[in-house]
Write a structure and sequence with these properties.
223 residues; alpha+beta; Glutaredoxin; four-stranded mixed sheet; two-stranded antiparallel sheet; 8 helices; 6 strands; isomerase; Thioredoxin-like_sf
Length: 223
């Protein structure tokens, strides 16, 4: 059973939601959770001015209050060259999904910790390559893929897929069944709030699959 998780490493509410997704994966290994880097602000030229820093701190404080996730408010990633462009970190995740697809959620968590806790500039390719080494991807292999036109294209496809399904914000969990989009969760919520919606979806999906697989006439039942 497939579920799509639309997220972004540089979205603070997604960082707050990561423990919830971790719990979801632990409780329901039967769910094939597809992580999509949906594109929070790709190509942004936003400079972290004092005003924008206040904006970030306001949201980071709210995320911390609701999720318990720690933030380092010193924001060591801020520099004269830093722009709040989320394309690079999204592309890094796309590279990992190509090389080690089973490690994409682990890498997403590494990106988030590096940015929000350690203050690393995860828009920088060299820093992203160093983070990829933590999950066993050689620096040269990562950078070769990271700088390729193919990975740039696949990253843009993720952004477009997000738009096609009507994703308006991150984090979002949804399913796509027979062309119909069902939103399981939009925005941050604790696991105890998410759990009933997930279990209801699982129950309904199993019933639908059972019904779809059975066909009975007067003489026989077929599947």
């Amino acid at each position: 059973m497939k579920m799509f998780y639309f997220t972004d490493a540089m979205c603070s509410w997604c960082y707050g939601f990561s423990p919830v997704v971790k719990k979801l994966k632990e409780d329901h290994p039967e769910i094939d959770l597809q992580i999509i880097s949906g594109g929070f602000s790709p190509g942004s030229k936003q400079v972290v001015t004092e005003e924008y820093k206040d904006f970030l701190e306001y949201h980071w404080t709210n995320v911390n209050s609701r999720s318990g996730q720690y933030f380092d408010h010193s924001m060591k990633f801020v520099s004269n060259t830093f722009r709040y462009d989320t394309e690079s970190s999204s592309r890094a995740l796309t590279v990992v999904q190509k090389i080690f697809p089973h490690k994409d959620f682990e890498f997403l968590n590494i990106l988030q910790k590096s940015f929000y806790v350690e203050g690393k500039d995860i828009t920088n390719g060299e820093i992203l390559a160093a983070l990829a080494e933590e999950i066993g991807i050689e620096r040269t292999v990562f950078l070769e893929n990271f700088n390729s036109d193919d990975m740039k294209r696949k990253t843009l496809e993720g952004f477009e897929f997000s738009r096609q399904l009507g994703v308006k914000g991150f984090p979002t969990l949804l399913t796509l069944e027979n062309g119909t989009v069902k939103v399981i969760s939009h925005g941050f919520q604790p696991y105890e709030n998410l759990k009933p919606a997930v279990e209801d979806w699982l129950k309904n999906t199993m019933v639908s699959q059972m019904n779809a697989g059975e066909s009975c006439t007067d003489g026989a039942c077929e599947c």
